[in-house]
Design brief:
Radius of gyration: 15 Å
Shape: globular
Strand order of the largest sheet: 3-2-1-4-5-7-6
Largest sheet: 7 strands, mixed
Distance between the termini: 30 Å
Number of helices: 8
Order of helices and strands: HHHEHEHEEHEHHEE
Number of strands: 7
Length: about 200
């Protein structure tokens, strides 16, 4: 897995450059999730941004009314997220492959924008188990992941089969290509995709 603390220190954070494009798509996906929850009699509840970094996406959850939490294992990133606000978002330092150790309460929505793809098979399985253990009935998982490339050691990447394998008991209800505008080379060669899972 890439050394993310070092990448933050060096200012090598290509995922932040992609944030504006990802945020636009995320808003559309959340519209669908919230509409479907409303039709099923559910409401906006608790959401967690896994591997939230400096909190580029977590505030959007809070803005829409979710009780939002962001978690990342880089303390400096979490400090930056807290400084940026908004105050109604909760941020925690923690490892998404050991969510049980983070002392979190269950969630209705899990958001992962590029975190899962950086782990090896054991790490992906551990994240899947942790998410499932913290999921309320009918929970949703939204994930943006990049496909595998020859640059695996630098930027990660997973196939759809690898994503599905890690989330036992979840149903993949939608997947679609993610826009590549703003990624730059070589990330724009990774075939990014959005995945939406519902807990069975």
């Amino acid at each position: 897995m890439p050394n993310y603390p070092r990448m933050y220190r060096w200012g090598v954070t290509p995922w932040e450059r992609y944030a504006p494009a990802a945020t636009r798509t995320l808003a559309s996906l959340l519209d669908r999730v919230e509409s479907d929850r409303g039709r099923r009699g559910g409401s906006i509840g608790r959401a967690v941004d896994l591997g939230c970094g400096r909190g580029l996406f977590t505030p959007e959850l809070a803005r829409r009314g979710w009780d939002a939490t962001g978690i990342d294992y880089v303390p400096e990133a979490i400090e930056a997220a807290r400084r940026a606000g908004p105050p109604e978002v909760t941020y925690a330092v923690g490892d998404v492959t050991d969510l049980a150790g983070a002392g979190l309460d269950p969630f209705d929505l899990f958001l992962d924008i590029g975190c899962f793809q950086g782990f090896d098979a054991a790490g992906r399985a551990a994240q899947g188990r942790g998410v499932t253990a913290l999921a309320r009935p009918g929970a949703t998982l939204l994930m943006l992941a990049f496909g595998p490339t020859w640059l695996r050691s630098q930027i990660g990447g997973v196939s759809q089969a690898q994503v599905e394998e890690a989330f036992v008991g979840w149903e993949l209800v939608a997947t679609e290509p993610a826009p590549t505008a703003g990624l730059g080379w070589p990330m724009n060669r990774t075939s990014p995709r959005w995945y939406r899972f519902e807990l069975r």
